[in-house]
Amino acid sequence: QVQLVESGGGLAQPGGSLRLSCVVSGRTFRDLVMAWFRQAPGKEREFVASISRSGGTTDHADAVKGRFSISRDNAKNSVMLQMNSLNTLNAEDSAAYYCAASWRTRNIANMSPADVDYWGKGTLVTVSK
Questions:
Q1: Torsions phi, psi of 29, nearest 5?
Q2: Could you tell me whether strands 123-127 and 10-12 are parallel, antiparallel, or unpaired per DSSP bridges?
Q3: What is the distance in angstroms between the CA of the first residue and the CA of the last residue of the chain?
Q4: Which residues contact 10 (CB under 8 A, 6 or more apart)?
């Protein structure tokens, strides 16, 4: 059984930083494209970032480019999301963040929730003064 366990969420001030981590078990990690999605209350789940199996290619949503960075450590079966310059504009960064994995995906660009095979339970990020 594949399990994805997120950690690192919490409260951050505007302009602050948080680092999310996700540890994967139950499947060969190198076989998986990894991604982060987020979902704010009343909104659809949206793509944040993705990373190829080798870690050599990444994609980030326009809303987070230049502020967030996805990375992975295949030796530790983990994927990270470094979030800098968190902001409260339209509360866009405050959301539940979900770790996601796909063994099917070949194109990591702007992944859809339909591309995801496995989901974590989510970790809550709140940006507030």
A1: -60, -35
A2: parallel
A3: 40
A4: 18, 124, 125, 126
28: which 2 tokens? 């060969």
SS3 of the chain: helix, strand, coil, percent, to 5: 5, 45, 45
Task: Evaluate whether 78 touches 24 at the Cβ level (below 8 Å).
Answer: yes
What phi and psi, each to the nearest 5 degrees, are found at residue 90? 55, 20
Q: What's the pLDDT tens digit per position in 17-48?
A: 999 999 999 989 999 999 999 999 999 999 99
How far is the C-alpha of 9 from the C-alpha of 105, rounded, in Å? 27
DSSP 57: -
